[in-house]
TrEMBL record:
PANTHER family: CRP FAMILY TRANSCRIPTIONAL REGULATORY PROTEIN, HTH-TYPE TRANSCRIPTIONAL REGULATOR ARCR
Protein name: Crp/Fnr family transcriptional regulator
Gene Ontology cellular component annotations, sorted alphabetically: cytosol
Record's keyword terms, sorted: DNA-binding, Transcription, Transcription regulation
Pfam family, one: HTH_Crp_2
Gene3D superfamilies: Jelly Rolls (2.60.120.10), Winged helix-like DNA-binding domain superfamily/Winged helix DNA-binding domain (1.10.10.10)
Length: 243
C-alpha cells in the first residue's frame, strides 16, 4: 500500500461478526454429517469449542496411512483423495471425497491407525475433533450412535459391492453399478473427475472414458462438466447385474 496508508483496524463489532460467520459455517458443516444430523445446536457448539480448525493448500497431506487416529478429521470445504502406496511405489486411490465428510470413523472408535493417506486435491478447510469428545458424544447420544452405526454399515455394504464389481464385472458394468448407487437425485457429481471414478471402480481413466461415452451413445446418461446425468436408471441397473 503506498505511503503510510493502512487499512483501518477491525473494531470489536467487526471481529464479533466474523467469529459468528465462522461459527455458523462450521455448525452447518458439522450438522451436514450423517452421524450428526438432528444433533441439538448446543451439542454442536460443544464440538466446535473442542475442535481445531485448519486450512491447507492443494497437495497437502492431511494424514498418513498407519498413523494413530487421535482426532476425527472432518472436511469442511474442498476435496481430498484417499490412497495407499504399495512397496513398489504404486498408488491406489480408493476414493475422492468432497465436503462435508468425516474420515476414519471406524478406526477412531476401534483405536486403529488411519486406513489411508488423505491428500488435498484443492485448497481445503478441515476440523479436528478430539477422539475423547467424539466417543463421549456417541456414548451420551443414542441417536448419534444409531446414525453412526448405520453410516458404518452402509460403508461396509458399499465396499462389498465395489469388491464384487471389480472381481465379476467388465468396466462398463462397473461404471453403471457405480452410477446406480449414487443416482438418487438423477445427477451424479464426479468429484475427482473421470480419474477419480476410474480409481473407485478399479479401472484406467481411458477405459472409464470409453465406457461413459458408450453409455451416452446408448442414451443411458448425459455427460456434463464435472457430473453425469442419469437418463435411464433401469437400463443401468440391468447392465450392472452380476452373473
Amino acid at each position: 500500500m503506498p505511503g503510510n496508508l493502512r487499512p483501518p483496524a477491525a473494531g470489536p463489532q467487526s471481529r464479533r461478526r466474523r467469529r459468528c460467520c465462522i461459527t455458523g459455517y462450521m455448525t452447518s458443516s458439522l450438522a451436514g454429517l450423517p452421524m450428526l444430523r438432528g444433533l441439538p445446536p448446543e451439542r454442536l457448539r460443544e464440538l466446535e469449542s473442542a475442535a481445531r480448525r485448519r486450512r491447507y493448500p492443494a497437495g497437502q497431506i492431511l494424514c498418513t496411512a498407519g498413523d494413530p487416529v487421535d482426532h476425527l478429521l472432518v472436511l469442511l470445504g474442498g476435496r481430498v483423495k484417499a490412497s495407499r502406496t504399495g512397496p513398489d511405489g504404486r498408488e491406489l486411490v480408493s476414493a475422492v471425497s468432497a465436503a462435508p465428510r468425516a474420515f476414519d470413523k471406524a478406526a477412531l472408535i476401534a483405536g486403529r491407525p488411519h486406513l489411508a493417506t488423505l491428500t488435498a486435491l484443492t485448497p481445503v478447510e478441515v476440523a479436528y475433533l478430539p477422539r475423547a469428545a467424539v466417543l463421549a458424544l456417541v456414548e451420551s447420544e443414542p441417536a448419534v450412535a444409531a446414525r453412526l452405526l448405520r453410516t458404518l454399515a452402509e460403508t461396509v455394504c458399499d465396499l462389498g459391492d465395489r469388491l464384487a464389481d471389480i472381481a465379476l464385472l467388465p468396466v462398463p458394468a462397473r461404471v453403471a453399478s457405480w452410477l446406480v448407487r449414487r443416482a438418487a437425485g438423477g445427477q451424479v457429481p464426479l468429484h475427482g473427475g473421470q480419474s477419480g471414478l476410474a480409481a473407485e471402480v478399479g479401472a484406467t481413466r481411458v477405459s472409464v472414458n470409453r465406457a461413459l461415452k458408450s453409455l451416452e451413445r446408448d442414451g443411458l446418461i448425459t455427460l456434463l462438466p464435472g457430473a453425469v446425468r442419469v437418463l435411464d436408471r433401469q437400463a443401468l441397473d440391468r447392465l450392472a447385474e452380476r452373473p
